[in-house]
Amino acid sequence: MAKLRVALAQFDFAVGAVAANAAKVGELIARARAGGAALVAFPELTLSGYPPEDLLLRPSFLAACASELATLAAASHGVAALVGHPYSEGEVFNAASLLRDGKVDCTAHKQALPNYGVFDDKRYFRPGHASVTTMIDGVSVGLLICEDVWQPEPAAQAAAAGAELLVVINASPWDERKQAEREAVLAARARETGCAIAYLNLVGGQDEVVYDGGSLLVDGDGMVAARAPAFVDALLWAGFDPATRRWSADDWPVAADPSLEATLYAALVRGTRDYIDKNAFSGVLLGLSGGIDSALTLALAVDALGASRVTAVMMPTRYTSQLSLDGARAQAQRQGVDYHVIDIEPTCQSFVAALAPAFAGKAADTTEENLQSRTRGVMLMALSNKHGKLLLATGNKSEMAVGYCTLYGDMCGAYAPLKDVYKTVVYRLARWRNGAGSGENNAAGRAISDFRLPIPPEVIDRPPSAELRDNQTDQDSLPPYDELDAILERFIEGEQSQAEIVAQGFDADVVRRVVRLVLLNEFKRRQSAPGPRVTTRAFGRERRYPITSGWH
Description:
Blueprint: E1 4-10, H1 18-34, E2 39-41, H2 59-74, E3 80-89, E4 91-100, E5 103-109, H3 121-124, E6 132-136, E7 139-145, H4 152-160, E8 165-170, H5 178-193, E9 196-201, E10 203-206, E11 209-212, E12 216-218, E13 224-227, E14 234-241, E15 246-250, H6 260-278, E16 284-287, H7 292-305, E17 310-314, H8 322-335, E18 338-341, H9 345-359, H10 366-387, E19 390-391, H11 397-402, H12 423-438, H13 457-461, H14 481-491, H15 498-502, H16 508-520, H17 522-525
Parallel strand pairs: 1-2, 2-3, 7-8, 8-9, 16-17, 16-19, 17-18
Antiparallel strand pairs: 1-14, 3-4, 4-5, 6-7, 9-12, 10-11, 12-13, 14-15
């Protein structure tokens, strides 16, 4: 029997852009037909984008999706197209329809509805109750949707109905552990059923979630036959041999650097680019302090948007060191961005003077430090308003976790690229970016030509400091970041108790202090900017603790 020629459309389909998504589907169907595909598959909820959230509660939105599906079906000739979409018949289903011969041939409804982590499917959808199989060029194909393949029953139903191949369309978000988990699940389903699997995933950033693509071909014995690179838009071609239940990939792109740092950096770049572009901002601006967080944020912004769309602003006070001034200037020059220096010392002093009568009899404390941060926030927001550029916040996950950030100060911003990146990982990414940027592997040390590096080594090497008072370092207020992040990961991602963390060798007083800070600062995180989710437990959409709580 001849091989079944399949095309997998690993592309971005934007939430709410129903007409544009349908037009892209039509173009890709034409490409698949011209390339001789018998089947072209598209990601989960292609027409609506994923996740459409409460757009699914609007009848007009559902009607628009149905109308575009009908138009695509009428034009479907010469190739079968599997398209994800919301389907309403009194109740709403997460559906995948096979379009061929000018009509909707069959429709599968997602059976397993995830309601954990970033997923909220049970709020919007009713579950399907049976797997759908269909014949395509003599091959029996089971049609599954995302979570269906993570449970044994839907795949087993399809196999019992005679499926030789499972085509699974997905909107599966990326995190640092996800690809290994996917491969383990797909191998288990293949071995249980004997079916080969085509796993197609969405790519692109949507608010706080980033989809990586990373599509997979798995043979009937559970072995991975091909892996698509993460964060690459591509029409992936493959041939399936039903006699052996094996795949052959046709010139799939290969990741230039498969390391975790490279993939994580690509996730942050893609999330930032898509947030800015999908919301039609002309560019971004950020406060450049001479520290590592703003330095990495600047590099991400330039890689996402290009230097011409990025503005950096240094806002010194009396406490700003010459090292910070020099480091910020060097970064801006190396990245080629629009750069401004605005001295905020006079503005800060005017605030202090205006407040002096109300502050009479009270010693200076963090109030005056926060005034500096809030002055910077006011300046940056004014520049954002005047120039129409979106403000990026530069804080990291370690700071957000323990509240080492100022409301209406350094927390100002509409998007926070490092929101889900621990401080220790910020250092790793900065060193990786310098290596990638110079064309040399500099992750373990400095490059020979430091002047070429996007992040000056002295910025990476210096002790982190907010520079809001004389000789200040972060470690005046926090444990060393290696220790802090290790505790935070156990408490946040691991959901471990204080006793469990202490039992692993951490100082009990430090653990109690860190956990107390995490719980006390939920109110700050609720007011923080969105940022790309890249860990298994991100603040915001995923980790939702009560602000007011008696649990300690």
